């Protein structure tokens, strides 16, 4: 994606409209629920960007977030070691990513991480895929040798689980094949959330349980026991696909068939990071990452080095699923053995370790999204507003499973709302 600014940089100039936003939370009741122009569900990068843009344009907005923190799948753990650890998103993909403007605005320090996944071969994908064809079958049918296939499974599901049409339509065969430098935020990726969240009306620990479409807009029932009611003209739903699939949020009346079918057709991958701290450097001098070793279920990279070293072991797709089916201790043991095998030496016991199970996390229910065969039109179907008041956002509506994608979508969606209303 080109590095165009997503921000209109109106922050601070916005005037909160809508009397309800001025009411104390205690005034909320089913009889006299305060009203906003927009209620945003989910304070991940998508929801925060959407709310930021609306507030900066003078709209009254409340953000309802189930967890006791913002960021969603962008989750920095500052408690593990002296260096912050990313349990979810960790990498900025290339120099063109939109999120660089947030990095600059927050003043965060970045470091380059060796990418190394690209094989440099552009795939000739002129011949159109069949509607329900998977990406592996398509490459086979069009005679692309396996040695030229993009290394999708490093980050995601294997090619036979992807829609060939989706990958073809969005140039994804070549996106994955391209070699690009990745970057990480040294003092924690959550630094980039600061400029977005600043001054927003954020209600943490407020899971939304029900979304009702009413004559004047929407009414949301939220809170640990469903005891709060929020009313608004519009609702932006920046929820993970897994949460939508599990029907954790009820819709009254139910969503149209087109939207329910779209949610059913899309899927989430599994992804797992095992993070170890050793009391001495263990990775070879020089490269900060060990490339993808055929036959290994992991990619390894270092987060810090000095007298001690923090190393990430990354697994995705079927490898991650296999690990997630095991006890946590066993996952760590398998990751350590794999690192030891790749290095060809015994390793010391780690002095600390951490991980996060995104599949078991009830506010995520899986890691990020992929588009299975036949689901290529599902994101667009889900993106269509429902009754002009419900606006789904984020990965399920764009198919783009990155922080950059969520950031851009939060702005794009609300730019459209602002222009139309
Ligand atoms: C392990 C892992 C590694 C990743 N690595 C990268 C990477 O290196 N680079 C990259 O760009 N991307 C990466 N991603 C993907 C990236 O994190 C996501 O694409 C992005 O963060 C999604 O943002 P979002 O706001 O759309 O969704 P989320 O971050 O999932 O936010 C949704 C929010 O909704 C909240 N919520 C859920 N249910 C409710 C409810 N009932 N009521 C209210 N709130 C609710 C959640 O708590 C959450 O805060 C990774 C993801 C994972 C899991």
Walk me through the structure.
This protein has 421 residues and is α/β, with parallel strands linked by helices. Among the domains are: 19-73 and 191-267 and 369-420, 3-Layer(bba) Sandwich (FAD/NAD(P)-binding domain); 271-357, Polyamine Oxidase, Chain A, domain 2 (Alpha-Beta Complex). It has 13 helices and 20 strands. The protein has helices at residues 45-56, 100-106, 135-141, 164-169, 172-177, 194-197, 241-245, 257-265, 317-324, 328-343, 378-383, 395-398, 403-420; strands spanning 35-41, 61-64, 76-77, 85-86, 92-93, 110-113, 182-185, 202-203, 208-214, 217-222, 228-237, 250-252, 267-268, 271-278, 289-290, 299-305, 309-316, 352-355, 369-370, 390-392. The strands form five sheets. Strands 1, 2, 8, 9, 10, 11, 12 and 20 form an eight-stranded mixed sheet that branches. Strands 15-16-17-14-18 form a five-stranded antiparallel sheet. A hairpin with a 3-residue loop joins strand 16 (299-305) and strand 17 (309-316). Helix 1 packs parallel to helix 13 (403-420). The longest helix has 18 residues, at 403-420. It is globular. Mean pLDDT is 88; it is low at 1-5 and 8-30. Flavin-adenine dinucleotide binds next to helix 1, strand 14 and helix 13.
Largest beta sheet, briefly? 8 strands, mixed
- Tell me the CATH topology of the domain at 19-73 and 191-267 and 369-420: FAD/NAD(P)-binding domain
The CATH superfamily of the domain at 19-73 and 191-267 and 369-420 turns out to be: FAD/NAD(P)-binding domain
The first-level CATH class of the domain at 19-73 and 191-267 and 369-420 is given as Alpha Beta
Rough shape? globular
Radius of gyration: 22 Å
Q: How many H/I helical runs?
A: 13
In percent, how much strand structure appears in the residues?
15-25%
Please mark out the parts with pLDDT under 50 across 5 or more consecutive residues, or reply none.
1-5, 8-30
CATH architecture of the domain at 19-73 and 191-267 and 369-420: 3-Layer(bba) Sandwich
Helix content: 25-40%
Overall strand count = 20
Q: Report the mean per-residue pLDDT as an integer.
A: 88
Bound molecules: flavin-adenine dinucleotide
What class would the helix/strand composition place it in? Answer: alpha/beta
Amino- and carboxy-terminal Cα gap: 28 Å
């Amino acid at each position: 994606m080109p590095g165009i600014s997503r921000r209109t940089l109106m922050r601070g100039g916005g005037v909160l409209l809508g009397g309800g936003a001025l009411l104390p939370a205690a005034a909320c009741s089913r009889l006299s629920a305060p009203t906003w122009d927009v209620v945003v569900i989910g304070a991940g990068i998508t929801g925060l960007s959407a709310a930021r843009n609306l507030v900066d344009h003078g709209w009254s907005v409340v953000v309802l977030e189930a967890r006791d923190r913002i960021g969603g799948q962008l989750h920095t753990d500052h408690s593990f070691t002296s260096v912050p650890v990313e349990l979810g998103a960790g990498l900025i993909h290339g120099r063109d990513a939109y999120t660089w403007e947030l990095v600059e605005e927050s003043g965060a320090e970045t470091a380059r991480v060796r990418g190394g996944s690209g094989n440099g071969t552009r795939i000739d994908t002129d011949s159109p895929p069949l509607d329900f064809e998977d990406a592996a079958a398509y490459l086979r049918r069009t005679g692309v040798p396996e040695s030229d296939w993009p290394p999708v499974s490093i980050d995601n599901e294997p090619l036979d689980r992807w829609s060939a049409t989706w990958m073809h339509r969005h140039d994804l065969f070549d996106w994955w094949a391209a070699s690009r430098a990745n970057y990480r935020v040294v003092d924690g990726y959550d630094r980039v959330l600061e400029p977005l969240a600043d001054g927003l009306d954020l209600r943490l620990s407020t899971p939304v349980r029900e979304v009702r479409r009413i004559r004047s807009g929407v009414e949301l029932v939220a809170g640990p026991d469903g005891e709060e009611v929020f009313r608004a003209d519009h609702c932006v739903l920046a929820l993970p696909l897994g949460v939508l699939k599990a029907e954790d949020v009820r819709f009254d009346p139910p969503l149209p068939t087109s939207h329910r079918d779209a949610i059913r057709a899309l899927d989430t991958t599994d992804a797992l990071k095992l993070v170890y701290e050793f009391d001495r450097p263990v990775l070879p001098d020089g490269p900060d990452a060990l490339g993808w070793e055929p036959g290994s279920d992991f990619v390894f990279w270092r987060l810090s080095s000095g007298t001690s070293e923090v190393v990430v072991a990354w697994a995705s797709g079927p490898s991650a699923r296999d690990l997630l089916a095991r006890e946590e201790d066993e996952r760590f043991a398998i990751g350590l053995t794999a690192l030891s095998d790749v290095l060809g030496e015994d390793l010391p016991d780690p002095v600390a370790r951490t991980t996060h199970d995104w599949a078991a996390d009830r506010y995520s229910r899986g890691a990020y999204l992929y588009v299975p065969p036949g689901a290529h039109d599902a994101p667009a179907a889900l993106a269509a507003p429902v009754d002009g008041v419900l606006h789904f956002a984020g990965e399920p509506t764009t198919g783009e499973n990155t922080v950059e994608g969520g950031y851009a979508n939060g702005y794009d969606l609300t730019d459209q709302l602002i222009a139309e209303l």
